[in-house]
Amino acid sequence: MSFNLYKNSFLCSSNDYENSKVVLAGIPMDFTVSFKPGSRFGPSKIREVSVGLEEYSVYQDKNLFNKVFCDMGDLELPFGNVGKCIDIIYEFAKKVFNDGKTPIFLGGEHLISFPLIKAAKEIYGDLVVLHFDAHADMRDDYLGEKLSHATVMRRAGEVVGFNNLYQFGIRSGSEDEISFARENSNIFFVYEIENLFEIVKKLKNKKVYLSIDIDVVDPAFAPGTGTPEPGGLTSSQFLEIILKMKDLSVVGVDVVEVSPYYDISDRTSLLAAKIVRELILLIE
Amino acid sequence: MSFNLYKNSFLCSSNDYENSKVVLAGIPMDFTVSFKPGSRFGPSKIREVSVGLEEYSVYQDKNLFNKVFCDMGDLELPFGNVGKCIDIIYEFAKKVFNDGKTPIFLGGEHLISFPLIKAAKEIYGDLVVLHFDAHADMRDDYLGEKLSHATVMRRAGEVVGFNNLYQFGIRSGSEDEISFARENSNIFFVYEIENLFEIVKKLKNKKVYLSIDIDVVDPAFAPGTGTPEPGGLTSSQFLEIILKMKDLSVVGVDVVEVSPYYDISDRTSLLAAKIVRELILLIE
Amino acid sequence: MSFNLYKNSFLCSSNDYENSKVVLAGIPMDFTVSFKPGSRFGPSKIREVSVGLEEYSVYQDKNLFNKVFCDMGDLELPFGNVGKCIDIIYEFAKKVFNDGKTPIFLGGEHLISFPLIKAAKEIYGDLVVLHFDAHADMRDDYLGEKLSHATVMRRAGEVVGFNNLYQFGIRSGSEDEISFARENSNIFFVYEIENLFEIVKKLKNKKVYLSIDIDVVDPAFAPGTGTPEPGGLTSSQFLEIILKMKDLSVVGVDVVEVSPYYDISDRTSLLAAKIVRELILLIE
Amino acid sequence: MSFNLYKNSFLCSSNDYENSKVVLAGIPMDFTVSFKPGSRFGPSKIREVSVGLEEYSVYQDKNLFNKVFCDMGDLELPFGNVGKCIDIIYEFAKKVFNDGKTPIFLGGEHLISFPLIKAAKEIYGDLVVLHFDAHADMRDDYLGEKLSHATVMRRAGEVVGFNNLYQFGIRSGSEDEISFARENSNIFFVYEIENLFEIVKKLKNKKVYLSIDIDVVDPAFAPGTGTPEPGGLTSSQFLEIILKMKDLSVVGVDVVEVSPYYDISDRTSLLAAKIVRELILLIE
Amino acid sequence: MSFNLYKNSFLCSSNDYENSKVVLAGIPMDFTVSFKPGSRFGPSKIREVSVGLEEYSVYQDKNLFNKVFCDMGDLELPFGNVGKCIDIIYEFAKKVFNDGKTPIFLGGEHLISFPLIKAAKEIYGDLVVLHFDAHADMRDDYLGEKLSHATVMRRAGEVVGFNNLYQFGIRSGSEDEISFARENSNIFFVYEIENLFEIVKKLKNKKVYLSIDIDVVDPAFAPGTGTPEPGGLTSSQFLEIILKMKDLSVVGVDVVEVSPYYDISDRTSLLAAKIVRELILLIE
Amino acid sequence: MSFNLYKNSFLCSSNDYENSKVVLAGIPMDFTVSFKPGSRFGPSKIREVSVGLEEYSVYQDKNLFNKVFCDMGDLELPFGNVGKCIDIIYEFAKKVFNDGKTPIFLGGEHLISFPLIKAAKEIYGDLVVLHFDAHADMRDDYLGEKLSHATVMRRAGEVVGFNNLYQFGIRSGSEDEISFARENSNIFFVYEIENLFEIVKKLKNKKVYLSIDIDVVDPAFAPGTGTPEPGGLTSSQFLEIILKMKDLSVVGVDVVEVSPYYDISDRTSLLAAKIVRELILLIE
């Protein structure tokens, strides 16, 4: 048929995997066997609202029309089976990194960053992780579980080396995990966000993976998330930070914990979509 | 690539147009140039929530797994240009009917029924339209416009003949349009819904097109719609009516006016998805 | 100036008090000194959504265009001073009844019915009150207060005589008040609603005041109210009841306890507006 | 201190476990390690809104003031560890049944019914389970898991014998589980609800456990639940059913799947609280 | 009658057109033939919530009580007929400007600014437009339409001269329109907002028209709007900007794109009302 | 019984009044006889969401686990009887202060601060009140009432001496009350917030009572409140202010006007809970 029919895809994206440098994929895992709760619908909503944005960015004076990038849809996952999910995500990420793509993964919950970072590490060897979040996510286990949204950066740090982990915007954590982070990773609390600009300069020649939990932004700007924590960044502050990433060599990105059901205004998803647009435009 | 990736599609649907008898397509037209308001996001939400249903129907003891049907995604439309939209929808519908398919169109606003019914009429010749709605939609023009969601059944009646138009659940209309309907079409007000069961018997050998405005159901059961009108059917009543359709020879269907933004519980979209599931199962 | 400018008024209403039989007025009292909570905004929202209805009623085959009725706006009240509010409402109602009008008062909370009924009683002498509500509102006092939304029908009964008070749809009350109602007024619980049709026949030659608490309808159909009580009527049932009122000699009406903030779908206000439209049309 | 201080408890409840026949307890399990999603907050919200009801029931002409019953608060559970949760719930239920109490458990998700029914079975030997739900919950496993909200009635049936399991209001299930239920348990679909009244008569001399998933009621009446399914009972219908339970010898109850976050009107929690009030009043 | 009755009007406003310098009027146009979607209800909601503010401003130490200004209500418009709407708005504005008033128009959608600015230009000859918005609104046409909310500042610039158009807070636009604005108008992106203070000094002797799209403020502060765009001003920043306007000779104002339905907290309408209060107070 | 059962209490709190320095108590007064509207449910919601926070504070590097503090639940109040409520609250506060505790009271509406401050004054003699609010609350009477949420700081000032009253964040008030405050108390408008840091230094040796109306924060960060006023502090700014309180000798605190029903995201309650956590940690 010759009619134009589309499925829900990110603004201006194509299906052309081969010729795309940047590749979008949704990872709708949220650990729960029931129907509605949470970030499972994040990728779908981010795509949906992305059409409310312009293809052109006034910040970068660049246009998505001039980029070939593809939106692969959502990865199919066996909900409820954490282990198998992790494996599938890992295999998928490995393939994408192997193909030389720069993936932008849309969560889903934060645990997905672990297999993604692991795959990136295996391809790139030397890898720095920049982690934006309200929560440190540095527990060794959570209620006995080693793999949890609350342990993901501990696992990631074990993979890339804690000295290669930079955490920004943090304003919540258990005493143990914060203590661990202070000793091992590079943790910057929300009131130390200015340090980021120095760090970015320092990391110019490194391969960088960005892990963005939307709750790094204050719940006034991003109410649609599972564990909102007051006292966060403004959306303007965070967009400024995102634009700073153009000085880095970004090899992979995830944007996680967007839970559309808690935000009838959709500004959380819109902010996520805008972050994604800016990232697509600044990745070479 | 060999990974399973999916885009937002209706529960259990495939991409196999050739082998599908039933074909789903979204028609996200809502006449408005701005971003958010309304039924434009109906098809996408209906697909999204459909995964919260089972593939199996206890009402019909049938299973979507045993059906080959495809979800074609949404038709791409030049928003704001009513005339061109109508043309594109008409051409698309004509193709689908020509291919011998039984389409289920997801709106979008009610005006889309006009090109759909026109296309069906041209293929099937003798056609009966069953119209479920709170509103008669029988104005000759609306603020001077001949093509409007408020005139759609007047236009449809001109195409199929008003004697072939049956309207059910009606509880709102201007004096003129109701008067016109009383004289020309077969109109049954909401308190006359029982007549439907007799009508269905009478229409057994006819080709039938179903046009379902979700607001035929009371806003308690379907709050997510643009012009809610109290005093409607219950969802149970309407599901019972849908099941009666199995005695008819249904050649096309539309389900329109689902506006997800006005219903945070998603029960409107869920009801629409359940209606669609039952219709897929009862169409031979 | 010759431009058409309007203020928020009920669908199809005029400013012509002199020539109007039916007169609408809002009584935005809700007992509370703070800004937002409750039925204070009921009248304004009912007017606003009324334009979403048609002027014509399919139920009665009558048209508001053929009626002269006026919407006087909202009565200005000293919020927080119950006694003075009651006085102002009473004086206002007295004037309207004295002028031979049939007022439809939009609440506001239920206590407003007391001064309204008192004024009606003084003009009409022999008066029957039909009370539709989930709650009996028959306490002698509430936390020591004689004038409260929970005592309003006790006060009203003292004025018109309890034998002239008919209560329908009741499904909540304290043991004392229900016991009092069983002995003194004519109380019909929600599961006895069918009795209404007999009562209406019996009251044909009486002057009747209708006091309608929107919560008589189930919160599925009217979630926008202060004290929702599950197990109520459907909107269809209640519209049928309203239509039965055409056999009565209705001299005054109030529709109370619409709290728009608890209903983003506006179906509560729409139902109230539809009730008002039908009442305007059936009052001679 | 002599001041009256209270914690959030059910309307009119005491702390007097010893002298209470009926005992309320919350089981805030919802399988998920994150903060917000779901029925975890059900018990707390049901207690909170219960004070919006009267202590007196017009349906039974009985008063909670004349009942000694206690509200024990919520059971403390290790969130995320399904097995340990089940054990704790089981031990707790065993103790309560052993003490000769009639517990009313507030969920939480439906899986909690399994340890509760198991404990009841061990104390009472011969036990009938009446199950009210939109979903059959009769899968043998769900994504490989034997213990899931989707398998709970399969597990319960294995404990009490499928012939002792009666299921009402069902309108959703996989083909396999419905087929299994048709062959093994006593399943009545939503359109067969009238059969309940006959069944109740038949079960008069039996010890009965009631398992009530709030989604048996239509989402119009109970939108605050995790897996809403259109086409359900009205709240009036279900209250009538609850009142029928007075002819049975009820030894235990659970009311599950109330998810307050999806219902800003709180009518779901109010309905659950009203059901609980009526059950307390009808249990001898 | 001597009773105080009021219709929904702005806090402290009168009906005295003759003696008012400042005149408020609602322009409830939102281009759409259906009932609910959008800014049509903006003026009515802004009036409604205005009573939640004080008449006195701590920022200016001035009091509305000392100002005579009138609220004329909403202009009656033929919904759906763009051309006729524009004509009516234009004629109305012309009259108001001719009478020497300083109007504050409440939208409605942004297109209304075109006839308003055109009328102002014709009266005042030399006119500067200050435009506050997230979007440039500088397209030459939008989907072929010359008159659209997306083209309004292009049309306005053609009327007043692009050199007289100053745009602030912009953070979204197509490449073409931004490029056009860069070359022709005076455009300042959101991160250049500080330039405003210099510009204001420069414009001291000019007649100035203010066109304020509420979405210039971040959706955290103004979620109730049709096309929210993250990364905007805070409400404090924008109030500070409004207060700077006292150094200018403001001859007309519009405040547009308030869509109350997307903001249950009403803070968008409250912010609009507060902006209007401050503007009334600072206009001589 | 040996099972762990809990009632809704603040994160990490105990029941051990004797050994607690800090004591939490809810004062659910909101002046209104009806069910739902407002801050009555504030304390309960603050407790509920507190479990979404960590026990550890990254700001102070301190842990609630190392603090013994108790949550006494909510004070039982005769709703609707203002005078008696004030008496009960006063007696309760007197007892707590007498026992040498540092109470943190959770409102409820702002009027509760009057009896609380009165009790504190009587125990501590020399007392300074720090008042954080959008509104001055300095009226002498409100609609004739001396005791009102709008007069509370006038009453408080009469008790402690207006020179001992410091007001921060104010951005709304009547002309009279602001004028009174300017002459008598120490009032700092929202744009003068920086002065707080100097004031804190000056008050180091004083006994200080903190009265925190959550609406001091902008409604973007705290939409769940009764009288939102745009133009307020960010949550980050206010958390920074709270941390400054560690330099003071805080003897009592209230956090008032949290109205959970207007904030489905719960970020208002979360912010209140976070403020409470920080205050518990900084009180010696």
From TrEMBL, chains A, B, C, D, E, F:
<feature type="binding site">
    <location>
        <position position="213"/>
    </location>
    <ligand>
        <name>Mn(2+)</name>
    </ligand>
</feature>
<dbReference type="GO" id="GO:0046872">
    <property type="term" value="F:metal ion binding"/>
</dbReference>
<protein>
    <submittedName>
        <fullName>Agmatinase</fullName>
        <ecNumber>3.5.3.11</ecNumber>
    </submittedName>
</protein>
<feature type="binding site">
    <location>
        <position position="133"/>
    </location>
    <ligand>
        <name>Mn(2+)</name>
    </ligand>
</feature>
<feature type="binding site">
    <location>
        <position position="215"/>
    </location>
    <ligand>
        <name>Mn(2+)</name>
    </ligand>
</feature>
<keyword id="KW-0464">Manganese</keyword>
<dbReference type="GO" id="GO:0033389">
    <property type="term" value="P:putrescine biosynthetic process from arginine, via agmatine"/>
</dbReference>
<keyword id="KW-0378">Hydrolase</keyword>
<dbReference type="Pfam" id="PF00491">
    <property type="entry name" value="Arginase"/>
</dbReference>
<feature type="binding site">
    <location>
        <position position="110"/>
    </location>
    <ligand>
        <name>Mn(2+)</name>
    </ligand>
</feature>
<dbReference type="InterPro" id="IPR006035">
    <property type="entry name" value="Ureohydrolase"/>
</dbReference>
<comment type="similarity">
    <text>Belongs to the arginase family. Agmatinase subfamily.</text>
</comment>
<dbReference type="InterPro" id="IPR005925">
    <property type="entry name" value="Agmatinase-rel"/>
</dbReference>
<dbReference type="InterPro" id="IPR023696">
    <property type="entry name" value="Ureohydrolase_dom_sf"/>
</dbReference>
<feature type="binding site">
    <location>
        <position position="137"/>
    </location>
    <ligand>
        <name>Mn(2+)</name>
    </ligand>
</feature>
<dbReference type="GO" id="GO:0008783">
    <property type="term" value="F:agmatinase activity"/>
</dbReference>
<keyword id="KW-0479">Metal-binding</keyword>
<feature type="binding site">
    <location>
        <position position="135"/>
    </location>
    <ligand>
        <name>Mn(2+)</name>
    </ligand>
</feature>
<dbReference type="InterPro" id="IPR020855">
    <property type="entry name" value="Ureohydrolase_Mn_BS"/>
</dbReference>
